[in-house]
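Marked as duplicate of an earlier ticket. Keeping the data here for the record.
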Amino acid sequence: MPKETELKPASGATPLIAIAAAAVDTETTGPDATKARVVQIGAIGIAHGKVVRQSQLDLLIDPGEAIPSEASLVHGITDADVDGAGSFPDAWAQFQEFVGDRILVGHSIGFDLAVLERECRRARLPWKKPRALCVRLLATIANPNLADYSLETIAAWLRLEIAGRHSALGDAIAAGDIFAALIPELRKRNIRTLGEAEVACLALSDALEAGHRAGWAEPVSRPQAPAFQPVDPYAYRHRVGSLMSSPPVVVKSTKPTRQVIDLMVKRRISSVLVSDQGTPDQAIEEYGIVTERDLLRRISSDAERAFDMPVASIATRPLISIRAAAFAYRAIGRMDRLKVRHLAVRDDGGMLVGVLSARDLLRLRAAAAIDLDDTIEHARDAAELAASWSMLPGVVRSLLGEAIDPRVVAEIISDELCSLTRRAAVLAEQQMQIEGHGPPPCAYAVLVLGSGGRGESLMAPDQDNAIVFADGEPDGPEDSWFKNLGAKLADMLDASGVPYCKGGVMAANAAFRGSLDTWRGRVEDWVRRLRPQDLLNVDIVYDLRPVHGDTTLAAQFIEYAYVRAHAEPVFAKLLGEQMTTGNPFTVFGGFQLENGRLDLKKHGLFPIVATARTLAIRHGIRERSTNTRLEKLIALDIGGEPDMKAMLAGHSLLIGLLLGQQTHDIYAGIPVSNRIEINALTREQQAELKSLIKRLQSAPDLVRDLMFA
């Protein structure tokens, strides 16, 4: 894992697969935690959801008293074995250096924590309870039907072998292997993060009480949000396209270096792009780059010939690039990661549109805290993707604290989700080739649908994705290849922190992958449907955003879908008839709550998003985001300006309330949802929310009235 990722401290938001941990165990002079002395400490590292075998600690300790024979019968350690061994303070120093700030993992770790604390007290060493997880408790959560929760029984259930039982290192390794094997089992029960695991363990009151009676320490702590970290919001407000130099300066590959230097001096620029055509209108792959440093190095090494060389011989390829639509923080992270000072800028179609230099970014304040870097783009597995994804809650909380428009924050989340999906697709394709499935049988594109495609993701996204490929029939060889790819993509995203879509909107499922012709056939089927219930999940396809592969396939598909939908007004009408907001109010006008919470997506976001999307489809508006759809409708005088502006303002309010609740829940170890705690809102917020939701009750009628306007 990259160094910068490793140094990120774990929080309640950190996925279990991404935590840096150390599995530990102690052997003692007896089973009574109030009296036992430590005679051996074992520990082993855990990273990326796996035990790191080469990172081990195995220490014998002289307890300063005789080891009872009954204890020796268990662990095999006698007085002779510890004769000449170091004292506990010596071992404790080595142990602390080994574990550092890592999360401790162990079987019945409350016992180990208790004896270690008492040893520290005896030696007058400072003690701070480390953050820890107990695999005994985690196994109870993952499989409540085991006969018992001994190390042997848990290992047998998980089909693990234990070696070196009742030695500290052997039991630590066993606990580490069990923890790694429990991660996917816990994920099946919607326990993905450190905070969620801690809260689930704390709910096992009987087991915790039994440990307390035995004198054990509390095995887990209640999660708390980390200290608030202020950020400079500039890098999160501005996109690369607004900072780049455009049009870029491009020279022909054959141009002599001397002339290129003269051009750079005259134009006062630090780099030029190089291509055979010498024009800034080609795909990004056609270009190389020459910078001041490149020229200086070549002149230093070959001064006699350097000036007459064709500039192509100095140019660096392939060109490192970034999307114009990317936020500035992404460019900063990429420059820092790759140690470069220039990035080519491309549009969504992969065409060159500009150049961004470190100089262009100097307007960013030097103290800017760029917590979201470029780690997703070079993650090597699901664990590294998960670690990158887990940075989001802190950034979201900070940006909301800086009063950034919640809709902009949602765009940032969406960009990260699309980057995560793109990288997961790359890794899934690599896995296909490693397993012998060969390269893709034809061109294809991975699409993000729904809120991610609209740029409106929250902190509880589902996997809404699809695949369009160039050629092939359903169940044919091409479709089979992409079915396999879609399954690997879904598994990768689920392990990374984006759960499987409960509605099945994933490329692994046949309805959400197909050739361009297959998708066109589906569109024809959609627009001829006679019942709205037959169109479930169809509307979110109109929010699609291509994130990987051949974007022209996606462009052809969505253009066809819009043209056909616009030509068949009954289709949009049927989509509108799916809109139901439900009644969230009691007979006395208060909110109907479930466990004190209200579903803001169902009663608030959905009517706004569905109104904007349905009317956009009907009236041929190609925009993806809810904001721009509503603004276009206002410009076309559709819907009445007061209603549309109320929805615009309400959209921002709802996203802000949901993001605030979700970041709180993530750090508290509460599974993230679209429900907010009403009593946590101020009276003013409650009144504003109630007024908005009452107004949105009429959204379905509004859509039906406007369908043929």
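See parent ticket for discussion. Residues 1-7, 365-370 have pLDDT under 50 and may be disordered.
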